[in-house]
Amino acid sequence: MAERDSTALFRFVDEFRSDLTSTVRSILGSVGRSDVGGKPSEVDFLVLSAGLVLYDRAPRWQPGGAPPWLWANRAIRGEIVGWLGHPRVEFVAEWHAPAVAPPMPVGNDVNFDVLATDCAEIADWLADVRQVANERDQRIHIEYQTQKSLGDPSPAITVGAEFGLQPANIRQIDARVRSRLAETSALVPW
Questions:
Q1: Is 1 among the domain residues?
Q2: Considering its fold, how many domains does the chain have in total?
Q3: Whole-angstrom Cα distance, residue 62 to residue 82?
Q4: Domain check: are 79 and 25 in the same one?
Q5: Residue ending a domain, choose from 84, 107, 139
Q6: Which of 79, 78, 58, 77 lies closest to 68, judged by CA?
Q7: How much is the average pLDDT of 115-137?
Q8: Could you tell me if 19 and 69 are in contact, meaning their C-beta atoms sit under 8 angstroms apart?
Q9: Quick check: helix, strand or coil at residue 153?
Q10: Of 61, 84, 107, which closes a domain?
């Protein structure tokens, strides 16, 4: 595959299908989409997509290192998440009630501390964000990601106006926090 032989891609997928399938199912489970993992045709499609990700990166893989599906796990994850599309969550009014503890101040209608009491993933995310960023950058990162998830076409402008910063500063702060989060998660064995 490193020599750009496309037939090698299919031989690779056939030989390592069980490892690629395990990787795909693991990623689907980690993003809460084990429902997709129960559909053989979709898993097969994602296994082939994982193979294509590896094919694209094959010249950079080093023999003797981690197996390719582990070495390129984040790229495979990105491909899968991109294919799945934006997650949709049902609105639960109780999650937006005022918190007893000092809430993570974000927007006017979302209280992540309250959400965190019922959702371990949100609690872990907040803990990680609090670990890698100061209070202002935490608020900016969370508000920016919230605006993006709500479909704001210009989240940096919206958040910049709220914090009195230029949109470029908002994007830079968010990128810095995401980079630190990625470094932190890279230390955690999956």
A1: no
A2: 2
A3: 26
A4: yes
A5: 84
A6: 58
A7: 87
A8: yes
A9: coil
A10: 84
| 46, two tokens | 């994602």
Tokens of 34: 């084990």
How many helical (H) and strand (E) elements, i.e. helices and strands, does the chain have? Answer: 11, 2
> Tell me: the pLDDT tens digits for 146-180?
888 777 788 899 899 889 999 999 999 999 998 88
Give me the DSSP letters along 76-97. HHHHHHHHH-S------GGGGS
Distance between first and last Cα of the chain:
26
Tell whether the model's pLDDT for residue 93 goes beyond 90: no
140 alpha-carbon distance from chain centroid: 18
Task: Give residue 17's domain range.
Answer: 6-84
Q: Look up residue 119 and give its amino acid.
A: C
State the average pLDDT over residues 111-132.
84
Count of alpha carbons within 13 angstroms of residue 78, beta-carbon side: 8
70 lies in the same domain as 104: no
The pLDDT tens digits of the residues spanning 20-34 come to 999 999 988 888 888
